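Need the bound structure for adenosine monophosphate, inputs here:
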Amino acid sequence: MKHLIILGAPGSGKGTQSKKLEEKYRFKLVSTGDLLRAEVASGSEVGNMCADIMAQGRFPENKIIYQLVEKFLSENAEAKGILYDGFPRTIEQAEFLLDILKQRNETVNTIINVQVDKDALIKRIVGRFSCADCGEIYNQYYKVPKMEGTCDVCSSVSFKTRSDDTEDTVKTRLTIYEEATAPVVDFFINHKLNVVVVDGMRSVDNVFHQIESVL
Ligand code: AMP
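Answer from helper R.:
Posting the output first, comments after.
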């Protein structure tokens, strides 16, 4: 089984690219952010523990994240490939992932590092909204629905924003990214794994093309 990781700051577009990769290559996508948001929305015990922490842009305990990832891996044991979005976010999480893969005689095959300028990140995040029904991602500055108020993909008229996509929280999330997640790139390089850098300032299709060329 192949394991691919997509790394990038909040707003780098890694969520959009992951969904495209999932669709085209049928990888199983594990987005720890999506799994956590689903827990919060369901009102589960885990969700209630995480809601405030996530709204502030901070990280829930590793134990919760590991359980979600392990459950996902056991439910997708037959997948030909797994694509990780938003995980690992710290060196400790990266060590955990390499450990559990080692037990299966597997490793991380490719790490895609999507790079975007900091100013663009803030605008991308605060402008972000999505279809409440199909999850298609839009942005008030860069990509609005073709017909105002109607989703291009599923024609829903209901949209939502993330509770952590506010200007204040974005700054915290970017700082945490710099401190905790950016070093994960060097961690993988030091482990002699295949890290590729992608220019995330280009169009969605161009970034996708860059990623496809290294798969
Ligand atoms: P994302 O959708 O990847 O931007 O994640 C949204 C939020 O979920 C983050 O700001 C964290 O609060 C939480 N989160 C997602 N993935 C992780 C992770 N691997 N470790 C810790 N917290 C996470």
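Comments: The CA atoms of residues 69 and 75 lie 10 Å apart. The chain has eight helices and eight strands.
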